[in-house]
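quick one
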Amino acid sequence: MTTSPKLFRVIGGAQNYDWGKLGSSSAVARFAKLNDPETVVIDEEKPYAELWMGTHPSVPTVLPDSNRKALRELVTEFPEETLGPDIIAKFGSKEGIPFLFKVLSIRKVLSIQAHPDKTLAKQLHASDPKHYPDDNHKPEMAVAITDFEAFCGFKPLAQIDELLQKIPEFKELVGADVTEEFHSGIASADVAGKKKLLQKVFSRVMNSPESKFEPLAASIVKKTKSDPALFGETLADLIQRLDAQFPNDIGLFCGCLMLNHCTLKSGEAIFLEAKDPHAYISGDIMECMAASDNVIRAGFTPKFKDVDVLVDCLTYSFNPVEEQKLKPAPFPRGSGDAKLNLYDPPIDEFSVLQTAFSTPGSEKFEGLEGPSLLIVTEGKGKIKLQGSETALDASTGNIFFIAPKAPVELISESNTPFTSYRAYCEA
Ligand SMILES: NNC(=O)[C@@H](O)[C@H](O)[C@H](O)COP(=O)(O)O
Ligand SMILES: [Zn+2]
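structure w/ 9C2:
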């Protein structure tokens, strides 16, 4: 290859984490099979959790050519054409696309987790490369494809205080001393003081031994059945559902009793800064993040838990759920017949554009100032470089790389929905 084409199909890679939906019930499995029918065989017993699209070395995205060349290799070979000089200058790298784009299909709750900022990521990668595979931060955004549930950020402190006051098992785990200090302190302390008090409560929970929290968790689960009103119906149901997945787990305390439980309808989004505690619970989403796989876990998981690092690093901000949501915005650089929703968080590495057709027609986009990866999640249509004769089939599961400054056109040829998501990065 003497240069890199401006628009071409790629094949993403799947991760079979235990929490993924099983077999063809997983959008990840369906998309992977549709995009690579010759090689992908769906195992109906297997969980298909994540479909990765990007140049992160842990799960290569490849070209559908004979030797399945990695997209990372092509980018490294032709950085000017695939990333563009501005992106190379801005991120100081000629080796990879600054974002990682994923489809997640969630059957069971993911780990209670947070992701490091750049400083912490460098330290963790240097000291523990096995658990922290790169040195990058990992702010992320989730856009709901189906109804979606997640824990995101700490509950407002008055809500945590109320639960501490009325659930004796929670109070016992935290200790009467810290419970009292939290109760009397949150009214008057300044924000820094409030965060310190929240960290004390969280630290007591996270550092409690299994021998202490397991019986208390079991007692709480029983109480959600004997006295659901004490928790409220939604919380009582959530505790029972997650206990069924991870019996008597510490996540029942640090997740259910301390983190915001947010539900998103299709098209709604949340954005998580580095060091914000979260855990996705159910549904199918598009997820975009800075190109990293650094996850600091502490509950609802069989994977490596780094409790001390998590307790130390969190932001301890405490905002209501509504403030965690990211509203879609119009996208002025497209014109035509589709509905455009731009999800644009305050992060340099990525934005995500949803293009939704419900009638025949076309949508023309100006070239963007950086690389894009686009996946079709519903229906079928065509994609082409504006002015070109050849239009490529764009069906559910198909993934495309779009080079910087390449003006593309999406074409819908029917009245059935044709939806795609395009992650991109601009200097
Ligand atoms: N919030 N979502 C993410 O960060 C995903 O991109 C990660 O890949 C998931 O956290 C992986 O979850 P587990 O570590 O298997 O529990
Ligand atoms: Zn995460």
